[in-house]
Each structure stands twice: as structure tokens, then as C-alpha cells.
Design goal:
This protein is of the alpha/beta class. It contains 20 helices and 17 strands.
Length: 494
């Protein structure tokens, strides 16, 4: 036999080695899939979500297990947030135990509002605060003009937290203002989400640090913890000036809000400017996140939580929720609002992919005679989110829910208004990600005047949008129904 020929190859050894590799691969797949199955069975939560993950693991060998590790594990149920980072959060809670927000409040005359405030006080620890001045900001120019004006007047500190910080005119203006304020002796801290602001952190973070801005990532991507933190993003948008003025809502720092650089035109959103005792609650959300993200506990000093005077007549309650919370406070807030509504429910949201509990609550409200209206974007920045949302339209319209699609801009507001009495504005979407995976913040405003003003804007927007007709929607093309069904399957995973 010729040396080096094919016949010279040791075929028995090759087949034995190949068989061994195959056996090891099968064993690894069986073990990893088995562990994933056990995780789903013991900690899976909703049956629909568990079934979706089981199918993903079965039909996507190895990749399905990796996806489950990244996106599927229910950290709240298995207490994965006993990591050292969460220990810092718990330590903060213990250090501040019993330190209630300012703005003493005697309680509501309305049983409806009392039940709502009791729930939120227990599931996220923030009490309602009286004596606030609240301004609703509904476009990019008004929002950032108000934020920049407050920054210009800062005397002690400026604390900024955003999911997205993106290069452009807004960030450049923020840089100029920070440079000026730091020269005046004002402290500036920025906290960002590592995924949401991924592009920014690579382009100009050093530029901000060079002028003295303290910057940290609220959910950094680190090799040792990426499997535990990748799917858990900090979606909050908070600005606090001197502990006296606070901003929160849906706006990120991106030029999409001030000029049509997106295919969907200028993005529309809603934000709040708050002055008064509720600013302390909002600031405590930032402080807790900062304590978690950095090694500094300096923000618990008294100068960062000044005594606040009454600035207006609005009662505000901050609602904060995240994977480290004992309860899904944002979802519970939405369900409670829907259940308490007696006359009307108005919802504006860019990602309406509800849990079964939220969906059932909306159906019950509509069937019981409550007028339910939803204003949603006609297009979306995510195709799967768009079709997943539309997969719910037929069944909720069947119960009497009115759906309006806004097509002249991408609607990014997160608003829930009931009975023209109570309104929620914040960062929380109507989807599994906001309910279980993201750190979110809403502000609940118990103020009929503000609720009525917001309702007028809502009605105007609905009048300029397309109302879906139930009969026509039922007869939509089969291709759309197929895409909706496929997207609906993945909706528990979003």
C-alpha cells in the first residue's frame, strides 16, 4: 500500500473517534436541554411563555439553550439577583429603611385612589406625595428645552439617567451645558444602559469624562456576568437637578425626537417635569441605581436629598419596578388601573404585547361597559413587535375596544388614563420586557385637571389617526394573519 494514500488512513480509529465526538455532543445536548427544561418547569411562570421556550429548545439544538440562558430565565423567581450587585441594592434599602418620602399625605377621599395607592406603596415602597407642580411635555423641543433650562440653573448637582444616549445635536448641547456647569462647581453624573447606549459609549464617553462628568453603566456587559445580565436592561429615563426638579417619561437623548432622521419621521413621546416632594422619590430611584452601578455610596448624604417645599397641588406617586423587585409593580399598576376604571380607559403605547392577565383585564373592562380606547403606532421600529401587537387586535376589538393607529409619526408615549381622574406617564410598555425584565419608572398623577388636559390631547390624536374597523380587520389578508400568528408565538419571549 502506498504511503500517504487514502488506504493508509486508519479507518477503525476514525470511526471510533467520530462516534465518540457524536456521543459527547449528544450527552452535552441532553444535559443542557434537561437542565433548561427543569428551569422552565420550576421557574417558567406563564404556561404560554414556558411552552414557547420548550419549543425553541427542542427545535433549535444548543442555540435554543443559549437563547434561554440569555433571555428566558426568570431572575425574580430563582432569586438570581442575590449577586453582589443586588446585594448592594438590598444594602441600600436596609440603610434607608423607614426613610419615607417627604410631602406628608393623609389619604384619599376616593376609595378607588386609596386602593391604588395602597397597592403601589406595598409593591414598590413609594408613597403618594402631595404638593407637586407637574408639567406634561409632549414634543421633543418642549421637553429638551425644559431639561436644558433646568440644567442651566443647576447650583449643586445634575443627575442624568437614560436608556439611550445617542450622538447628535441634543447630546452636543448637553455636553456644552455640562462643561459650563462643571466649571461653576456643579457635580454632573450620567448613568446609561450598556445595550441601549452601546454606540454612544464607544464614540464619546471619554469626551464627557474629560470635562469632569462621572459616568457609569447601570447594567454593564462583563464577561463573568453577561449570561445573568444581558437580558435585563435599565430602561429608565430620569433627570434630577439639585434634588428639586425632576424629569421622567419616555424620551431618550436622540435627535429622532427633533428632526426626521428616522424612516418613521419624528418620534413622538410624552415626558414630565415635576417640582415638589415627589422629586425625592424619583431621585431615590436614581440613587439606588447609581449605588448598584458604581462603588460610591456618596449619594446617601443629606445634600442630595434636600427638604422640599410645596410647589403645587398635584399628588404624585412614583412607581419603580425591575428584576430585583419582589413584585412586577408596573404590570400590577396597569392591571389595577384597568380594573378600577368605571367610565373610560385611554391607552397610548408603542409596544402593546400584553400578558394574559392584562389582556383579560382589558376585555372584562370593555365587556362591562367601560369605554376603552387605544392609540398605537401604525408602524414600528420592530417588525416582530408590529405583527405581534396586531395579533391581539381582533380579539380585543371583538369586546368593544376602539383601536386608533397613528401613521404620521412613530408614537413612543407610554400613557394610561382612567376616568379623567388618574394618569400614568413613564417608561413602562405593555409587554413582557417591561413587566419582568427591564428596570422601569412611571409617575402616577392623581390630578383631574392634568388628566383632562391629557385626555383632550389624546382625543385630538385619535381624530387625526385611523380607527380600525372590526369587520374589515377580520377580513385582512391571510399573509398578515400568518405573520401575526408567527409573531404571536414569539410574543411571550419579547
Amino acid at each position: 500500500m502506498k504511503k500517504g494514500s487514502v488506504e493508509a488512513f486508519d479507518l477503525p480509529f476514525f470511526y471510533t473517534f467520530n462516534s465518540m465526538i457524536t456521543t459527547i455532543t449528544i450527552l452535552l445536548y441532553a444535559i443542557s436541554s434537561g437542565l433548561a427544561f427543569l428551569g422552565i418547569i420550576f421557574y417558567g411562570g406563564r404556561p404560554s411563555r414556558s411552552l414557547s421556550w420548550l419549543l425553541v429548545i427542542v427545535f433549535m439544538p444548543f442555540i435554543g439553550v443559549l437563547l434561554y440562558l440569555l433571555f428566558g430565565i426568570n431572575r425574580r423567581k430563582i432569586k438570581i439577583f442575590k449577586l453582589k450587585e443586588t446585594h448592594r441594592r438590598r444594602l441600600y434599602d436596609n440603610n434607608r429603611d423607614g426613610d419615607d418620602s417627604q410631602g406628608g399625605f393623609d389619604g384619599f377621599a376616593s376609595n378607588k385612589k386609596e386602593k391604588l395607592s395602597n397597592l403601589l406603596s406595598k409593591n414598590n415602597d413609594f408613597l403618594p406625595c402631595d404638593g407637586n407642580k407637574v408639567e406634561v411635555l409632549q414634543d421633543g423641543d418642549a421637553t429638551f428645552n425644559a431639561i436644558f433650562e433646568a440644567i442651566k440653573n443647576a447650583k449643586v448637582f445634575i443627575h442624568v439617567q437614560y436608556y439611550i444616549l445617542e450622538e447628535g445635536e441634543l447630546l452636543d448641547e448637553m455636553f456644552k451645558l455640562f462643561k459650563r456647569k462643571i466649571a461653576e462647581g456643579v457635580e454632573v453624573r450620567i448613568m446609561y444602559d450598556a445595550i441601549g447606549s452601546f454606540d454612544w459609549r464607544h464614540k464619546s464617553i471619554k469626551r464627557f469624562r474629560s470635562i469632569g462628568v462621572t459616568i457609569c453603566a447601570s447594567m454593564p456587559l462583563r464577561f463573568g456576568s453577561i449570561l445573568f445580565s444581558f437580558n435585563y436592561r435599565n430602561h429608565r429615563k430620569i433627570v434630577v437637578i439639585d434634588g428639586k426638579i425632576g424629569f421622567t417619561g419616555g424620551f431618550n437623548v436622540t435627535d429622532k425626537y427633533i428632526k426626521p432622521i428616522s424612516e418613521m419621521g419624528i418620534w413622538e413621546d410624552t415626558h414630565l417635569k415635576i417640582e415638589g416632594p415627589a422629586v425625592e422619590s424619583l431621585h431615590k430611584v436614581f440613587i439606588k441605581d447609581y449605588y448598584f452601578a458604581s462603588k460610591e455610596d456618596i449619594l446617601v448624604e443629606d445634600k442630595y436629598l434636600p427638604k422640599l417645599k410645596r410647589k403645587g397641588d398635584s399628588i404624585v406617586q412614583i412607581v419603580a419596578s425591575g428584576p430585583d423587585s419582589d413584585y412586577a409593580a408596573i404590570m400590577q399598576q396597569y392591571i389595577m388601573l384597568i380594573n378600577l376604571a368605571e367610565d373610560s380607559i385611554c391607552i397610548t403605547n408603542p409596544y402593546f404585547i400584553p400578558s394574559s392577565a392584562v389582556l383579560t383585564a382589558l376585555k372584562i373592562a370593555a365587556l362591562s361597559g367601560v369605554k376603552v380606547q387605544m392609540l398605537l403606532p401604525e408602524e414600528s421600529d420592530s417588525k416582530i413587535a408590529r405583527y405581534s401587537m396586531r395579533s391581539y387586535f381582533e380579539e380585543i376589538m371583538e369586546t368593544g375596544v376602539e383601536i386608533y393607529l397613528k401613521g404620521d409619526a412613530f408614537l413612543h408615549s407610554k400613557i394610561l388614563l382612567i376616568d379623567n381622574e388618574v394618569i400614568s406617564i413613564g417608561s413602562g410598555n405593555f409587554d413582557n420586557r417591561s413587566f419582568d425584565h427591564n428596570f422601569e419608572t412611571n409617575a402616577l398623577i392623581y390630578d383631574g385637571t392634568i388628566a383632562k388636559e391629557t385626555h383632550r390631547s389624546f382625543v385630538k390624536d385619535c381624530g387625526n389617526s385611523k380607527r380600525l374597523d372590526y369587520e374589515s380587520y377580520v377580513d385582512r389578508p391571510g399573509k398578515d394573519k400568518l405573520l401575526e400568528g408567527l409573531a404571536r408565538f414569539f410574543s411571550p419571549l419579547l
